[in-house]
Automatic annotation (TrEMBL):
<feature type="domain" description="Cadherin">
    <location>
        <begin position="484"/>
        <end position="586"/>
    </location>
</feature>
<dbReference type="Pfam" id="PF00028">
    <property type="entry name" value="Cadherin"/>
</dbReference>
<dbReference type="GO" id="GO:0000902">
    <property type="term" value="P:cell morphogenesis"/>
</dbReference>
<keyword id="KW-0732">Signal</keyword>
<feature type="domain" description="Cadherin">
    <location>
        <begin position="371"/>
        <end position="484"/>
    </location>
</feature>
<protein>
    <recommendedName>
        <fullName>Cadherin-16</fullName>
    </recommendedName>
</protein>
<dbReference type="GO" id="GO:0016339">
    <property type="term" value="P:calcium-dependent cell-cell adhesion via plasma membrane cell adhesion molecules"/>
</dbReference>
<dbReference type="GO" id="GO:0034332">
    <property type="term" value="P:adherens junction organization"/>
</dbReference>
<feature type="domain" description="Cadherin">
    <location>
        <begin position="184"/>
        <end position="256"/>
    </location>
</feature>
<dbReference type="InterPro" id="IPR002126">
    <property type="entry name" value="Cadherin-like_dom"/>
</dbReference>
<dbReference type="GO" id="GO:0045296">
    <property type="term" value="F:cadherin binding"/>
</dbReference>
<feature type="domain" description="Cadherin">
    <location>
        <begin position="257"/>
        <end position="369"/>
    </location>
</feature>
<keyword id="KW-0479">Metal-binding</keyword>
<dbReference type="GO" id="GO:0008013">
    <property type="term" value="F:beta-catenin binding"/>
</dbReference>
<keyword id="KW-0812">Transmembrane</keyword>
<dbReference type="InterPro" id="IPR015919">
    <property type="entry name" value="Cadherin-like_sf"/>
</dbReference>
<feature type="domain" description="Cadherin">
    <location>
        <begin position="47"/>
        <end position="165"/>
    </location>
</feature>
Amino acid sequence: MVPAWLLLLCLSIAQVTLETEDGRVLWGPQPVLVDVKDENDQVPHFSQLVYKFQLSLGTKPGIPFLFLEASDGDEPGTANSDLRFYILNQAPAQPSPHMFQLEPQLGALALSPEGSTSLGQPAEGLYQLLVQVKDMGDQASGHQATATVDVFIVKNTWVPLDPVHVPENLKVPYPHPIAQVHWNGGDVHYHLESQPPGPFDVDTEGKVYVTKELDRESQAEYLLQVRAQNTHCEDYTEPLGLRVVVMDDNDNAPVCSPRDSPVSIPELSPPGTKVTRLLAEDMDAPGSPNSHIVYQLLNPEPEEGADGRAFELDFTSGSVTLGDAPLRAGQNILLRVKAVDQGGAEDGLSSTCEVAVTITDINDHAPEFTVSQIEPVSLPEDAEPGTLVATLMATDADLEPAFRLMDFAIEAGDTEGTFGLDWEPDSSHVQLRLLKNLSYEAASSHRLVVVVRSVAELVGPGPGPGATATVTVLVEKPVPPPRLDQSYKASVPVSTPAGSLLLTIQPSEPVSSPLRFSLLNDSEGWLCIKEVSGEVHTARPLQGAQPGDMYTVLVEAQYEDRPTLSTSATLVIHFLKSPFAWAPTLNPVPTRHLCTPRQDHGVVISGPREDPDPAGGHGPYSFALGPNPTVQRDWHLQALNGSHAYLTLALHWVEPREHAVPVVVSHNAGTRQLLVRVIVCRCNVEGQCMRKVGRMKGMPSKLSAVGILVGTLMAIGIFLILIFTHLTLARKKDLDQPVDSVPLKAAV
């Protein structure tokens, strides 16, 4: 301790000033430094005279468990205040007198290696140590003081801990205690380490806490180390290991492995063929019910009326195989499978796996012709090589383009190579063509059998009957076209009326089949020709034609059954001047009747009764129907001789009524029109015309007859009602009388 007078001296002489008596400063003030030299006049002393401490068994040697504290009043940092600590005595001295060690400068009391080895017998006890503190450092001289340290040896409670199981996603307030450690010695500080780092902590009392929810899928297990340390963070003993196991909670649904491409299955694959295997993963604990996955097939559902399913699923392994139901090539099927954990329990988590399955095509369909029997084809004997005979078409039910490629061949009927086939590689059409000249004498017909095959190898049954087509080729002798005269000529007056016969076109040589005639380049439309007979008529009056002019048209004739065989000739019409008008006196035609539907009856039309032109003589008359198209359609006029014609119905049915049929009568250059009145009616079996008869006088009409019948029926009904009413009233009267009033029938 610093003396008080020394402190006062330091304060009074901190500054020195020289003044006169009157207070005038002669010098100063000037600071004065006074160096006071310390003297070891202070005795060190402990902070406590008696120290008490519990020492747990198992404490490591050399680890201080108590730090002695002492102080010295001398100047710090000098030898006078340099303290040293020593153990003077240990009681008891068994099992070793040196059970403890004391660090001289720090005063750290620890168990010695010898004491650590010897400590344990007895398990518990008291050791009393006499300790000394001395100043002046390691010098022999100096002041000193003593104190007593009572060390109580206590039981070791630092024992290994059993693993702790903490459920994941635990819903409790945090921090949540999970374990308790205890170091039985005194002055302990706990420290916790986690590997890997986790949400754990320890308090001053040794309680181990989890500070938030755990996730087993992130970390399934933690290894904690709890250390018991002194105030200098030194371990009293080895750290305790605590294994924290995170218990699984079913918080993860199964997850299906993604698939980039669809699964391809060939059509006609047998039942049981493996399609795929679903592998769903569950992040929950392996081997636990939470990760036990089973599978359920959601779709496709079996089709209505089908015998089985298209796919079968092993619910444990997730293996998908083909079922009994057939599948078609080209089908794109989406399999949806439900993966459920907890072995398919009702509260298990699930997810849906999808697998795209494509049914690929195989070459299981043989190509077939759309028509297996071709109608006979006629070819002329002089047909040129390369002529198209027929075109055949085949189809293939396969979907893959490579499986639809076809090969064609003539299988039978063409030993001489007269015919050939022509087709494109990717076409389904084949052309049968003539390669050589035909000979009617060598073969009048050819029966060709064409076969179609698949280019790719066929899977399954072979080609059926539709793989062949039969073509019959008939060889025809060449037929020459009809022959006409090189030209035909006719002279007509410009006043010739419509419908006049000009001439008849006849072939120059006999023909084998009927001909059909037509006119070409009839620019004025003056003429018309009968298609079958070849008769050329005027179609309309020759307006605009001048005497001396010529009018040229072409007449074409062709075979009825061979329209391609045709010929043509020139028809030249010379227009003449109109002659003197002649009015023939025609015999009157009485009104006749004809039957419809048509019967074998007609009307005879006669020429004039006398010729007014004696010079003209009795030349022939020509008869023709008027130019009206309806008349020409409904009626037919046939010349009987040079003076009479026969008029009949041209149609099977003509409307029953009176018809006025115009007939043009020509004689030499003169023409006149005659109206022939004909009654067309329905006829009886005898051919008599049936006429409509009016109602006879005095005969009832239909309406009056119906009225009479209705009145008669009403009268009969009223009469019957009166009879039944009378009978009913009489029976009721009999029932109302007493029994004894009814007279008895007398017995006979």
